[in-house]
Design brief:
Chain lengths: ~140, ~675
């Protein structure tokens, strides 16, 4: 067989095999992202997808029970009640007013059932416009400690 | 001091513009004064960046809470260690840090080559200045760290304020690795600017000869070492601090650091094809370009928030600047390529499929497919939103399914490649070189299979690891044996001598050995176990052969946090072994906690114990224990990889035979009282 054909087949086999595995992996892990506002307008089949929803944790909404954590996510003026079902401890960054991303699917009673919660530190990487104003707002004044 | 710092940065920007524009003028006119002054402007740019960075650090150390950046990331109680690291804990400071590390590289290059490669350096200087201009634009005009703290006053104008104390550094960052992971990773990312400058410069200059590939390769190796360390330190940090038991989550920011590493590794291999056989020139030049572009893409992904990540900064418009920069670079690279592509014509063709060239080709293919897979997976939400309107992301199952087989294929090539001959390998040579290692590998696999390990990928990984380790050991043994017969030294001394005579090759083998160790460590992940339990004082939990007994709880106040520690006694087969202290840290300035994992690490496995918090019903502490086999091999392998790269960077200790004839250099040292006569003199050769 010609050299080039042999190389071509070798390269082709690798690419096809990887493409197939990629397609399988995609099917297993694909997750849709929706905002809270979008979620409330989704109907039918879309409600059974695995999805991610992002927002800010409403203050004083975190309630921890054994095996479950309930809280409310807010975004763009709307709010969404969430139940995290699982035994893994939630990340240390998951506190009031933190930016959080939940992964799961909408439950039957209007609550969103989350299997996975990711939280980003609220104060660390401040949004650009709030840098000077926000510093004063989130003040934790210590007098000379 | 902040005025001084911001002025220094502004001046740096001006010098960089001169270095760039003047550099272009110097190339066109070849006026020696222009060449010299633009080089000096380049050096001045770097020095001014150093001054700007030191000024910002000074603001941290002097607790200057009139500066907005210092207020957000530091407080009086923060230890000195972390006040240094606070410099790079936020957007503005970390971009200044980027310019700082880049300036160290540019400074070194300008000084090191000030009297060499005269035809090439002006072009390299222009490219480096161009990159510096971009980052200094951000440092000066877009996200300056020298902004004063101000709040809207009563009549709507901004009023300057100074606070008594700052917000402090995020608890998650108060860990020693915060001080070493970013500098290493940034040294990797920025370091790839230098080979990019050499490659683009050489292409634009149509620099004769292969000297530029030498220089490009050396600087790529330096950047690559830092990138490797940065990635491994990040993985170790995630493992030791977050408490989720893993070290790699295929998070977009993690992936961003892996992408240039993959193309950089591909380049380090395919460059050998260019050096030995004058092939793959176009491919190599574009690999270097892509590596640099992926670095900029990486920092774009991290800073713009375009894909959601636990690491990423908040969404901001800074992403647009990076996109613009990437577009400009692509246009320049493409233009340079189109104009000068005949300069890159190949001298030879591929001869046979079973040859070293083809193993390099497949090495590059595998690395590039992995790179494309990781890139597509990471950017999938962006592309899916463009085309379908839905943001769809993919997770670990996708990345693992594709990258595990690719990794194993790469491992296989690592064993096979170095033993194939250039151009074409005969079947006898194949049998002679691979017979034993293959047999040992299969034997290793059979033993593990018999011991009960049935996981397919782990088995294949182990067989390949043993195979590759055997080929590498054989290479050292064969070479050392030859030297030993000639010199009579011990096998170990001969092996060292062998390595120092060809540091690139044998240093490379050491790096491969390190990668084998890392793969062994990764294979262990298939056998991870964990147990989580609410524990009363005095109760026990069992994981594997270990019994954990919760003896007591204590609270310890520290400088800026209070540590709540679990005192856990570990017993193995009912014999007391050691104490572990998993803890949670509550910080004074924020509502967040930090989790410190207690790890007992051996070569066989890691016992990883986390204080997960209190049970909401009973208020009892919850302990989560993991048994992670072979993790230590990863960190140990990383050390070996870095050691191997350092060896490969050393110049060869090579005996160069020179006929000195009648002329003796004045003042030459005579060895052992020998009289000078027309004879040979030994001199060190440099790669």
């Amino acid at each position: 067989m010609k050299k080039k054909a042999k190389f071509g087949i070798g390269i082709g086999v690798i690419i096809v095999a990887m493409g197939f595995l990629a397609w399988l992996g995609y099917g297993e892990s694909k997750t849709y992202y929706h905002t809270i506002a979008e979620l409330q307008t989704q109907q039918g089949r879309a409600l059974k997808q695995r999805m991610r929803v992002g927002g800010t944790v409403a203050p004083n909404s975190i309630h921890r029970y054994s095996g479950r954590v309930d809280f409310v996510l807010e975004g763009e003026g709307k709010s969404l009640p969430i139940s995290y079902i699982g035994s893994d401890p939630l990340p240390d960054t998951f506190v009031d007013k933190a930016q959080a991303l939940v992964e799961g699917s909408p439950g039957s009673d209007g609550r969103f059932v989350a299997e996975h919660v990711q939280a980003k530190c609220a104060s660390k990487y401040e949004a650009a416009p709030g840098a000077t104003g926000g510093a004063a707002a989130s003040s934790t004044q210590h007098s000379g400690t | 001091m902040d005025v001084f710092g911001s002025f220094a940065l502004l001046l740096a920007f001006v010098c960089a513009v001169y270095a760039f524009a003047g550099g272009i003028a110097a190339i066109l006119t070849r006026h020696p004064l222009l060449v010299k002054s633009t080089r000096q402007a380049g050096i001045a740019t770097c020095c001014l960046v150093f001054l700007g960075t030191f000024s910002l650090e000074y603001l941290f150390f002097s607790d200057n809470f009139a500066n907005a950046y210092v207020v957000s990331h530091s407080n009086r109680d923060l230890s000195t260690f972390y006040k240094i690291a606070a410099l790079w804990s936020g957007q503005e400071g970390s971009l200044l840090f980027w310019s700082f590390i880049l300036a160290i590289y540019v400074f070194s290059v300008l000084i090191a080559y000030r009297n060499k490669n005269g035809e090439l350096m002006p072009y390299v200087g222009v490219v480096m200045a161009g990159v510096q201009i971009f980052f200094l634009t951000l440092n000066n005009f877009v996200v300056s760290p020298f902004k004063a703290l101000a709040i809207p006053g009563a009549n709507g104008t901004m009023q300057l304020v100074a606070r008594g104390d700052g917000n402090g550094l995020t608890p998650l960052l108060q860990y020693p690795e915060m001080v070493i992971h970013p500098p290493n990773l940034y040294s990797g990312y920025t370091g790839f600017t230098i080979p990019f400058a050499f490659a683009l410069g050489a292409l634009l200059a149509r620099y004769p000869g292969e000297k530029w590939i030498h220089l490009t390769r050396k600087w790529t190796m330096i950047a690559w070492t830092f990138q490797t360390m940065g990635i491994l330190l990040g993985a170790h940090w995630a493992y030791a601090v977050l408490g989720w038991g893993g070290y790699w989550g295929w998070d977009p920011v993690e992936n961003a650091s892996l992408l240039p590493w993959l193309t950089g590794t591909a380049f380090l291999h395919s460059v050998m094809m260019q050096e030995k056989r004058g092939m793959m020139k176009v491919w190599n030049v574009w690999l270097v370009f892509c590596t640099f572009l992926l670095c900029i893409l990486g920092t774009l992904l991290t800073r713009s928030g375009v894909v959601s990540s636990v690491h990423a900064f908040a969404q901001s418009s800074i992403g647009n600047w990076f996109v613009g920069f990437i577009v400009i670079i692509l246009l320049v690279c493409f233009g340079a390529y189109v104009k000068n592509r005949d300069y890159l014509k190949s001298e030879n063709q591929l001869d046979a499929i079973v040859s070293r060239e083809s193993s390099f080709l497949f090495n590059n293919l595998v690395l590039l497919v992995a790179c494309i897979a990781v890139l597509s997976g990471t950017l999938f939400p962006v592309f899916s939103e463009w085309f379908t309107g839905d943001r769809i992301s993919v997770g670990a199952p996708f990345f693992n399914k594709v990258n595990i087989p690719l990794g194993l294929l790469l491992l296989f090539l690592t064993g096979v490649g170095p033993l194939l001959a250039w151009r074409k390998t005969s079947t006898e040579s194949l049998k002679r070189n691979f017979g034993w290692p293959l047999a040992i590998g299969v034997l290793g696999g059979a033993i593990t299979f018999a011991l009960g390990f049935r996981q397919f990928y782990s088995l294949v990984c182990l067989i390949l690891c043993v195979f590759v380790a055997s080929t590498i050991t054989m290479e050292f043994y064969r070479g050392a044996k030859v030297i030993r017969t000639r010199s009579g030294a011990s096998l170990a001394a001969s092996a060292i001598d062998l390595t120092m005579r060809n540091t690139r090759r044998y240093g490379g083998y050491i790096v491969h050995m390190g990668m084998v160790l890392i793969f062994i460590g990764l294979a262990g992940a298939a056998f991870n176990r964990d147990v989580q339990k609410e524990m009363q004082l005095g109760s026990t939990m069992q994981i594997g052969p270990y019994t954990l007994l919760l003896q007591s709880v204590d609270t310890r106040p520290e400088k800026n946090y209070t540590a709540e520690r679990m005192i856990v006694e570990v017993m193995k087969n009912n014999k007391p072994m050691m104490m572990l202290y998993p803890e949670k840290r509550r910080f004074a300035t924020t509502v967040e906690n930090g989790t410190m994992v207690a790890i007992y690490s051996t070569l066989k496995e890691d016992l990883y114990v986390v204080y997960a918090g209190q049970s909401p019903d009973t208020q009892l502490p919850v302990i989560h224990a993991y048994l992670n086999p072979l993790v230590k091999w990863i960190w140990f392998g990383g050390v070996v990889v870095v050691f191997g790269t350092l060896v490969a960077l050393l110049p060869n200790r090579r005996a160069v035979l020179v006929l000195s004839g009648a002329q003796q250099p004045v003042g030459q040292q005579l060895q052992h009282g020998l009289t000078p006569s027309p004879s040979v003199t030994m001199r060190e050769g440099h790669d």
